[in-house]
């Protein structure tokens, strides 16, 4: 009887520990990181160069905050992670657009210099 009681106790404790381990904690750090990513993408020009991605990131942060308020921590974390990815995409697209503009400007400067050199050679 004692062995049976010990096994039952052990199973109950194991179940309790497993239940505690699966309880999600509030993803406050992830939300803070995601908000910082959104802010950075916006400050770099994401509104101009990647408006859809930045809007998506902003909406997901808002939804993550609502999920936090509702104590839906798994959902909040997932949304915050998605917001961070969207913000990083917006930041990357913004950097790419700015690089393309810089390339076009450099090509135009090179063209103007070539014309000037050609005129001087005549």
Structure write-up:
- 89% of the residues lie in helices and 0% in strands.
- It has 122 residues and is an all-alpha fold.
- It has a domain at 27-94.
- The longest helix has 49 residues, at 73-121.
- It is rod-shaped.
- The termini are far apart.
- Residues 1-23 form the signal peptide.
- Residues 73-116 form a coiled coil.
Provide a compact summary of the structure:
This protein has 122 residues and is mostly helical.
Tag the structure with descriptive keywords.
rod-shaped, 89% helix, 122 residues, 0% strand, mainly alpha
The H/E string reads HHHHH
Helix vs. strand class = mainly alpha
**How many DSSP E strands?**
0
Low-confidence stretches: none
Shape descriptor = rod-shaped
For the sheet with most strands, the description reads: none
Compute the CA-based radius of gyration: 27 Å
Number of helices: 5
Bin the helical content.
over 70%
Please report which band the strand proportion falls in: under 5%, 5-15%, 15-25%, 25-35%, 35-45% or over 45%. under 5%
Mean pLDDT: 88
Topology of this structure?
Elements: H1 2-22, H2 28-43, H3 46-49, H4 51-69, H5 73-121
InterPro entries: DUF4398
Pfam family, one: DUF4398
Coiled coil: 73-116
